[in-house]
Each structure stands twice: as C-alpha cells, then as structure tokens.
Amino acid sequence: MGLMRSLRVKLIFTFLATSITGILLAFMVVRQSNERAFADLLQEQRQAEFVQRALFYYQNTGSWVGFSQAFRSQETQPATQPAAQPLTQPVPGQLALPQPLFALADADGRIVLPAPPYNPNTNAPEDALTKGIPLYLDGVLIGTVLPVDQLLPRRTEEDAYVKQVNRALLWGAVAATAVAIFLAVIMARTLTRPLQELSAASRAMAQGSLEQQVPVRTQDELGELATTFNQMSSALALANQQRRQMTADIAHDLRTPLTVLSGYLEAMEDGTLSPTSARLGLMHQEVQALQRLVEDLRTLSLADAGKLTLQKELINPADLLAQVQASYAYQAAQQEVDLQVQAPVNLPATAVDPTRMRQVLGNLVSNALRYTPAGGVVTLAAASVRKAPPVAEHQPSLANDGLQITITDTGSGIPATDLPYIFDRFYRGDKSRQEGEGESGLGLAIVKSLVTAHGGAITAVSPPHPGATGTRFTITLPLA
Q: Each residue of 180-190: pLDDT tens digit?
C-alpha cells in the first residue's frame, strides 16, 4: 500500500509540474503578446493623432514656422483646457508628454520638431526620411514624420484596460491550475488502481492463493498486463493442481505394487506362504512395474530439464514402421487385429533416435491395440510434408521440410471431453480400465516429450473424419 501511495504521489506531482509549467509559459507568452499588440495599437493611434495635428497646423498656417512651440504648448496644457494655438482639437483624457513621440522634418528634410536623436535645425538622414511617414497636402509633399525610440506612455483608461486583461489572464491561469490539480489526482488514481489490484493479487498468490483474477479495465499496456497476470495466475493454479494430482497418482501407483510385494514378503517371512515360482514371478512383475514407473518419471524429468540425450541417426521411415509392426505383430494376431504399414520405400531419410522413436510409436500402437476390437485395423503410415509453394513465379520451389507419421485405429475412440487432456501426466480417461491393466497414465505424456525433443509435434483427432470411429495420432518431424 505504501508503494502505491508513493507512486500515486509521484504521478500527481509529475502531472502538476507538467501542467503548471505549461500554464505559466502560456500565461507569460499570452501576456507578452497582448502587451506587444496593445503597444503597437497605441503606436498607430498616436501616430495617426500626430499626423492629423500636423496636417491641421500646416493647413491653417501654411508653413511649419512655430510648430514646435505650438505643439509643446498644446502638450503641456491640461486635458480640460482648450488649445492655446489652433493646432488641433483637444484629445479627451490626454496627458502631458515630456518628449514628443515623433520628430517632424519639412519638405527639405530639415527638422522642425526635434526629438532624440534628431536635433533642431539639422537635416534628417536619408535613410530616416525613407523610413518615415510622408505628409501630403493637396498632393504636395510638405513634410515627413519620423518615429523615435521612446517608451510609449499610456493614458489612464489604457493602463486600466491592460491591467484588466492581465487580471483576467491571471485568474484564468489560477482556474487552469485548479483543474490541473483535480485532473492530476483523478489520472493518478486511475493509473495506479490497476497496479494496486495487481499488487494485492500478487501478495495473495505469495501467501498460497494462486487462483487470482484482476479486472481488465483498459485496452492499453495496463490492460495487457492485467490480462497476462490473469493468464499466469490461471496457469499457476492449474499447474499446482496438476502437481498435487500427479503426486497423489504417483503415490497410488507406487502403493499398489509395494503393497503386493510387502504382503508376499511378510507371508513368506512368517511361513504362511512358501516362495513358489508362481509367487516369485508375480513379485517380479510388480518390481518391473515399479521400474517402468521410475524410468518413465526419469524420462519426463530429463525432457523437462532439456537434458534428454538423443542418439540420432539417419533412418528410412518405412524401415522404422516395419520394425514397430514386427514388434507388435504377435499381439495384434492374438487380438485378431490387422496391423498394417503404409509407407513408400522412397521416403527421404530423417535423423531420429531409433530407440526413442520406437518407444513413441510402440506406446501409440499399444494404446491402439488396447482399444481396437477383434476384426479392427491399426494402420501405421508415413508421408512427406511440403512447404508452402513460392509466392513469386521466379522463386524456386521449396524442398520437403517434414515427415508425417500417423497411427490410426478403428477402436472406440476418445471422448471429446477427454481429448484436450490426453497428453497430461497421469490423466486417465477410463480410470477403471487403465488401472486394472497396470497403466500409469504417463505413456502419452512421454510420447509428447520425446516428439518435442526431436523438434516435432504431435496431435490427436477422434474420430479421424466424420462418420468414422477410432483415433488418429499425427506426428510431424523435421527432415535431416
């Protein structure tokens, strides 16, 4: 819980820092932009006023003589007094200006209204005249207005307007910050809630409760993490259940022969039973059952650890199937089952461990014979598997890439409810029948492990096609 709180606080501060930084930058940029735009607007207004006053003066006097004195006298008067000279109409709310905002040159370029850096009775530079604002009266150039570098003062109402705009921006920034705080808390809680649920479920799993499921609230990375966690939890719970079941099955399979051996040995030791050859033979069978179980478990453990050693060599698939057929021909004849082999002799050789592969096929044939009634057929078949054809016409055709071996019977088949679990360890579809025949439930699990160790795959279908009975196992192996 402390970790979740710490992460939530970190996320809140991260969101707040990002949001407030963006708000402050936006506030500063907008404020500066407004100040600049307002200053430009004031500059245009003052310039228009100055031009109007200058034109009005020249139109009334016919020259620029006395313009400087008249302009300064007008500027220093209070806004409520009328102008002492007929320079222009009074401007309401006008303030006194210590220095003119513009200089004025006559038609010859001589300064008639000085303002820094232009001195009185001097000629203005040509570049300044070029950049200035020409004044025309009846189409005749009468002078040039020259802007100067001077801080533009504001009138009272203008300054009040700027303050009002800045105040509105400030309140907007405060409101945006409050919204950012609210959203930061909500987003941090939303992001940490799935993590908090995963943390709680992980602690429950650490305490032994493996079956944990967390809600998948989103479709993003957190949702994918929750889905993966649920799958992992289900897999761990299933594996734990299978482990417990396997332990119970191993104990059961060990207990039966050990009970028989213990009973016979105690009876012989007490003199109740004499050690006849029949009784010793029965005891020997139980010992062999124990040896098979231990060997099967050892094979599975080596396969799981990736340490199963394979002695591979190139063999002809048809020869391999013929050897398996010969090994089970007598048993098939005794059960009146036809054991067939269907494999072309020109099949490409494949690299396998012959002993292990005969063990795989032997387990499958033994199962097929066990569930195939008299008069039935068990078929061992092999064929090549080709890769997909080339995509483009100029590409060469691809060679064979696999060998497919099938074991098909006409027996009773495997129920659909049992089919997904037949390769699980100690799984018994027909428990009473298999336990009576001494089956441990490891045969198909060993088959799958050995096929996988060869780089192959095995599948089972029952029935093999609609309207038929029986089972078909298909083994796919890579070619040499």
A: 888 888 888 77
Q: Please give the structure tokens belonging to residue 437.
A: 């025949």
294 and 226 part of one domain = yes
Domain boundary among 268, 284, 305: 305
Residue 36, number of CB atoms within 10 A of its CB? 10
How many structural domains comprise the chain?
3
Mean pLDDT calculated for residue range 130-137: 89
In angstroms, rounded to a whole number, what is the distance separating the alpha carbons of residues 25 and 165?
A: 17
Burial 252-285 (b: 16+ CB within 10 A, else e): ebeeebeebbeebeeebeeeeeeeeeeeeeebee
Its domain, for residue 9, covers 2-101+150-156
Domain boundary among the residues 287, 305, 323 is at 305
Read off the pTM.
0.51
Question: Tens digit of pLDDT for each residue in 165-217?
Answer: 888 888 888 888 888 888 888 888 777 788 888 888 888 888 888 888 888 88
